[in-house]
Amino acid sequence: MPERSPRRRARGAAATLTAVALAGAAALTGCTSDGGTESRNTKPSPSPTPVWDASPASIAAVGDSITRGFDACSVLTDCPEVSWATGTDDGVRSLAVRLLGPSKAASHSWNHAVSGARIAQLPEQMALAAKDRPALVTVMIGANDACRDSVRLMTPVADFRASFEASMRRLRSSAPKAQVYVSSVPDLKRLWSTGRENPLGKQIWKLGICRSMLGDADDMGTAAVARRDAVLARVVAYNETLRDVCARDELCRYDGGAVFDYRFTGAQLSEWDWFHPGRNGQARLAEIAYRNVTAAGPPA
Predict the structure, then answer these.
(1) Model confidence pTM above 0.85
(2) Which of 22, 103, 132, 266 has the most C-beta neighbours closer than 10 Å?
(3) Bridge partners for 253 per DSSP
């Protein structure tokens, strides 16, 4: 075979180097056979954050006597038709009525709250709510955990947290896409301060309603003041727990302490016990819930 000339060998070497360089560039940029470019170092795009639906098509409620409308219509009885969450009373205009309309509210909302319930019973309520496949679940719980016969019997904060976490897991296991609206626990000390202005209310309190806060309502001694302050501190801790656990769920919205901060007046308390919300108070709770559920973002 004849020997190539130096010039031809130089051109061949240059072509080889060029080919190697192009191949290296293609490897770095991930050039495809059709001329497209694909980066080998591109990370997968994160899943989009779920968008809060301000117009849910159905509602399930869980919680305690407040959500059952206890003592709002007659003494020592539930009155779910005036419930802030799912009631049908025209004067209250519950969250369900405001979101769904009167006719649909009756057929597309469910009230699983139980008067006297504490947070230890919430996982079971959540499991029942999940079976309804609701678009939104409302939660108002914790008052009975602080309203005990003594401060010593109040639910420990660690247990409160564990029960709420378990409740969210129960819901998510069956209804992963349901939105959750969590109400703060009302300020029980403010309710005591307001209700004690009514002599009849104080007589009813002696039957045993929320002894940890309402017992010996007119006693302003050191021990009584410390007892009420301890109940208030526990409610604040419960609300912090509700906020923290809710914040870890992308489809959960806490009310930002709106119910705790609301200053109920005597006109908004039950005429039967001067402690639970009456019709007027239930309407105020419905307003707070509607404002938070339909807001563009969660409360600050």
Answers:
(1) no
(2) 132
(3) 181
Number of helical H runs and strand E runs in the chain: 13, 5
Which residue has tokens 């009756």?
Answer: 106
Give the helix/strand (H/E) hosting 138: strand 136-140
Q: For each of the chain's 300 residues, which pLDDT tens digit applies? A: 444 444 444 444 444 434 433 334 333 333 333 444 444 455 555 556 678 999 999 999 999 999 999 999 998 899 999 999 999 999 999 999 999 999 999 999 999 999 999 999 999 999 999 999 999 999 999 999 999 999 999 999 999 999 999 999 999 999 999 999 999 999 999 999 999 988 988 888 998 899 999 999 999 999 999 999 999 999 999 999 999 999 999 999 999 999 999 999 999 999 999 999 999 999 999 999 999 999 998 887
